[in-house]
């Protein structure tokens, strides 16, 4: 027999044996499709729409199943009951963070989004407390958002009712709000440094949601040895971190220990207090990473939701008219329902960030070993047909009861839930409400094409659901 053939057969047998031992060893993982050597189940998952692929697999294997992303077993939770049982009933165990190799190349386990264990608890506790001290959830931050909304309106007026791509204008507003908390200043909408970094974040969201990044995360060897868009992503993140470092250095030169001006000052003061602690988590590198996380997360999730929201309002002018009528009457029930429906419908974060179990756990008669990666399908919750009839249809009635009053839903999880819920959830809700309301108070929205011909299908559906580019006219009322 040809030596090459013998080698291939031998390697295949070793890999299959390795996979079998993983599936039947320490843990008794949930069932799932049989993986191929090296590739795992990657050929059964559409990298352009991972969420849809997981939904299809759940029909065959149920709400809890295992897929192999490369050689790594990953447990998938699909549907409200499974997600609730894991993230709420066993929240502490499922609070670990899974592997995200592309981003880990630059974060090195620091920051807040992709940290775990004690480091995550320390950084999250400090961040939440500091953000609250600077007005998060209070009247003071609402005043900042309202002021920024007025600035946004002025910029939209400058378009003079001509067609425009709203991407950057809708990104500048939430970015300025978070900048005022982190850097103690806002930027002019034409500031070249501001627009440069807004472009970086916007580009990164598209790259992170692309099929190539999903492949790189499953086969990390590609990151170091192959060209691709991940190189641009890493360069963009490095540029942003360099900018943040310069801001930190400026703060260090003018720091007043008794009068912190913003988030960076508070972190630097904490660093000074912990100088003698060899185990401290408060380092310059940690500060740069956490500011980069807050800067990005506090900008792109809100701006993308705003951009997608306006596209949906263009697509459904009857909904827009109803909301504008309510704004005039200062009632607001439908307005709140529309905001919830926008977030439900666009399904901004389809499969959440990867998680990991922090210890061995028996879950639904399966034994999931410590460290196993967990994927939670938020799509399966937000598009549950029992809770939201015709979930693929944009209908604010999903959040209205029979008498037309707003109704809450436990299935509304656009920010994840409990242990790993977005630290800026309150601010994001406030921004979405005030920015959209202010825009609709001041402008009629006009599409360049017949609303029926507008396509609202996301161009990417990986980490984030990225809306298609479109042109809009803001006609002053």
TrEMBL record:
Q: Which domain of life is it from?
A: Eukaryota
Q: How does it sit in the membrane?
A: Peripheral membrane protein
A single GO cellular-component term from the record reads:
endoplasmic reticulum membrane
User: Where is it mainly found?
Assistant: endoplasmic reticulum
Gene Ontology biological process: organic acid metabolic process; xenobiotic metabolic process
SUPFAM superfamilies in the record: Cytochrome P450
MF (Gene Ontology): heme binding; iron ion binding; oxidoreductase activity, acting on paired donors, with incorporation or reduction of molecular oxygen, reduced flavin or flavoprotein as one donor, and incorporation of one atom of oxygen
Residues annotated as signal peptide = 1-27
User: Where is it localised?
Assistant: Endoplasmic reticulum membrane; Microsome membrane
EC number annotated for this UniProt entry: 1.14.14.1
Q: Where is the chain membrane-spanning?
A: none
EC class: oxidoreductase
Family matches, as CDD domains: CYP2C-like
Q: Which UniProt keywords apply?
A: Endoplasmic reticulum, Heme, Iron, Membrane, Metal-binding, Microsome, Monooxygenase, Oxidoreductase, Signal
List the Pfam families. p450
Cofactor needs = heme
Q: Where does heme bind?
A: 422
Q: Which family does it belong to?
A: Belongs to the cytochrome P450 family.
Would you tell me the protein name for this molecule? Answer: unspecific monooxygenase
Starting at the broadest rank, the lineage of the source organism is: Eukaryota, Metazoa, Chordata, Craniata, Vertebrata
